[in-house]
UniProtKB/TrEMBL annotation:
Residues 1-86 form the HTH arsR-type domain. Keywords: DNA-binding, Transcription, Transcription regulation. It comes from Paractinoplanes bogorensis. InterPro entries: ArsR-like_HTH, HTH_ArsR_DNA-bd_dom, HTH_MetalResp_TranReg, WH-like_DNA-bd_sf, WH_DNA-bd_sf. This is Metalloregulator ArsR/SmtB family transcription factor. The lineage of its organism: Bacteria, Bacillati, Actinomycetota, Actinomycetes, Micromonosporales. It comes from the Bacteria.
Length: 105
């Protein structure tokens, strides 16, 4: 599964949002998200397989953190769409400015 498919699921996006703030253990994520441990672990496995998160073992716990690579790839994929919408919105702004100017005349 690729990163986009992995984060398309709303619960996994909530996990990614939580990990954006800081690295967390499964127990911390369970508490933050109000979900069961098996459910959080299932979603973390999908995110890990997609390369979105990595886990580091500390004592008896696994600490999960985001991996930047997949997000850079998503950002690069989104760049042309961002440019397209920026262009369209700039055109709309120019049109509205012209309309306002004509109405004021």
């Amino acid at each position: 599964m690729d990163a986009l498919a992995a984060i398309a699921e709303p619960t996994r996006r909530r996990i990614v949002d939580a990990l954006r703030l800081r690295a967390c253990t499964v127990t911390e994520l369970v508490s933050m998200l109000g979900m069961s441990q098996p459910a959080v672990s299932k979603h973390l496995r999908v995110l890990r397989e997609a390369g979105v998160v990595t886990a580091q073992t500390r004592a008896q716990q696994r600490v999960y953190r985001l991996e930047p690579g997949p997000f850079r790839e998503l950002d690069a994929w989104l760049a042309p769409y961002r440019r397209m919408w920026t262009h369209h919105l700039a055109e709309l702004e120019r049109h509205l400015d012209r309309t306002t100017t004509l109405e004021e005349s």
